[in-house]
């Protein structure tokens, strides 16, 4: 059995960022072999990840990046269990590294992001597992969004747990940065389910109609009137829950569609992405 010295432990700690005791145990298990000790620490991360797989993650960081030409935006949320971990430099550095890898390699979705090869040759998922081993709590990519449009505007809430991307079309050379940010903040606050009614999925429409019928029935309305009443309530749902039909929070006299038209004729939102950690 190789003798494990304090300098050996410190060297492994500098290499991996793992705790002193974890490094000592890893070196002992690896009989002083540093490469094997690193593997031991990575396996430890896998064990911790498996053990804490069902734990809730309600803290973390959301980051975004817009391309230089303004036509593409990426939004990533790395989540953890507790707020102190979200402030640890290793955690924040990992979010930034994942975002930079996404910018360089342009994955289409979350699975693609996790499979990305990082500068050291390991995958993004392997880096996450390694950090789980160091920190000892669940860490995961809660969401990743990639949006392309004529112009993309980003917004990150002050708590860094909520982010929005807005894709605008028919910009026509106008400066839409201010209205774009206003709309992004609207999305953050009002949580629309779609850009307009055509984007609302059929199951949501069916559910809203059934809810409307049940409400009317509970109010004692005749059965013959339930469908018409429910459709009326559905119209209200569209106004309150689809972006272009919503009242602008800064000016209740305008809908978002009217705000856009007022800013630049034909200007509209083609898509948006909203991600939030913990809600």
Outline the secondary-structure elements:
Blueprint: H1 6-16, H2 20-29, H3 34-51, E1 59-66, E2 72-80, H4 83-86, H5 89-105, H6 110-114, H7 124-135, E3 139-148, E4 151-156, E5 162-169, H8 177-190, H9 202-218, H10 226-241, E6 247-248, E7 251-255, H11 256-263, E8 268-276
Antiparallel strand pairs: 1-2, 2-3, 4-5, 5-8, 6-7
Features:
single chain; 279 residues; alpha+beta; Helicase, Ruva Protein, domain 3; Tetrahydropterin Synthase, Chain A; three-stranded antiparallel sheet; 11 helices; 8 strands; 47% helix; 20% strand
Shape-level CATH architecture of the domain at 54-148: 2-Layer Sandwich
Mean pLDDT: 89
Protein structure class: alpha+beta
> Which percent bin holds the helix content?
40-55%
Strand order of the largest sheet: 1-2-3
Give the number of helices: 11
Q: What is the oligomeric state here?
A: single chain
Distance between the termini: 51 Å
Poorly predicted tracts of residues:
none
Largest sheet: 3 strands, antiparallel
Order of helices and strands: HHHEEHHHHEEEHHHEEHE
Report the CATH topology name of the domain at 54-148. Tetrahydropterin Synthase, Chain A
**Strand portion, in percent?**
15-25%
Rounded radius of gyration (Å): 25 Å
Coarse morphology: elongated
**The CATH top-level class label of the domain at 54-148:** Alpha Beta
Spell out the CATH superfamily of the domain at 54-148: Elongation factor Ts, dimerisation domain
- The counted number of beta strands is 8
